[in-house]
Amino acid sequence: MSMAKRIYVLNGHPAEASLSRHLAETYWTEAAGAGHDVRIAHVNNMHFDMDRGAAGYSGAKALEPVLEEALSNLEWCEHFVLTSPMWWGGLPAKLKGLIDRSLLPGRTFSFDEKTSMGLPKPLLSGRTARVILTADTPGFFLRLAYGNAIKRQLRGQILGFVGFKPIAFSYLAPASHPKDGKVEQWTKTVRGVATKGV
Q1: What DSSP letter does each residue of 52-120 carry, written as one string?
Q2: Nearest to 21 by CA among 83, 64, 72
Q3: Which of 22, 92, 129, 151 is packed most tightly, with the most Cβ within 10 A?
Q4: If residue 12 lies in a helix (H) or strand (E), which one and from where to where?
């Protein structure tokens, strides 16, 4: 086994029961069994105001305890695993609200320091990530028709912006009505990456 890691698993599906939850808990169980230090959270259990409010960061709302815990877990982890469905080409509203509220300057990026490209300096560098996306859009269509937009957003404008690199993707489709044996196959795949902590 590779060296043990601190891993934070976040299930971004807003429902109590979902394929995303199943895959998150599969990763958590397998990674912990392999000796990794793993924390898991489910967006559906979190109660917070999803609306960040006005543009800019001055006068930002105080973080609810569940958002402070999520942010602390991102700072604590060495590897972040996000499971989520793709809805209307993007992330569920509650997960997006968590991102809007939690990824704050001074904690996840810095306006005071700049990268060589002139962008705010990421403050969560040195961490890796895996995104496990479920969707109904076939992978080839996501790539050819939509330019992998959700992957580009997560890699470049969200997780990569605050320092996560590299970011691996597991894209699982079609997920609403999977063919026989597909969920078992996806579960096996998640077990494999979880054991390695990647």
Answers
A1: --SSSSTTPPPPPHHHHHHHHHHHH-SEEEEEEE-BTTB--HHHHHHHHHH--BTTTEEEEEE-TTSSE
A2: 83
A3: 129
A4: none
Look at strands 109-114 and 128-134 and give their pairing. unpaired
CA distances from 165 to 30, 89, 140, 198 (A): 23, 23, 24, 12
Spell out the residues 6+ positions from residue 130 whose beta carbon is closer than 8 angstroms to its own: 79, 80, 81, 82, 167, 168, 169, 170, 193, 198
Measured CA to CA, the distance from residue 70 to residue 197 in angstroms comes to: 19
Q: Which residue has the tokens 């029961």?
A: 17
The string of pLDDT tens digits covering residues 103-115 is 999 999 999 999 9
> Measured between alpha carbons, how far is 53 from 84 in angstroms, rounded to an integer?
24
- CA 87/CA 94 separation, integer angstroms: 12
DSSP state of 156: I
Q: What is the pLDDT of residues 7-22, one digit of tens each?
A: 999 999 999 999 999 9
pLDDT tens-digit map of 24-52: 999 999 999 999 999 999 999 999 999 98
The SS3 call for residue 166 is: coil
Return the structure tokens found at 195: 């054991």
Closest CA to 92 of 80, 105, 101, 83: 83
CA–CA separation, 190 and 198 (whole Å) = 10
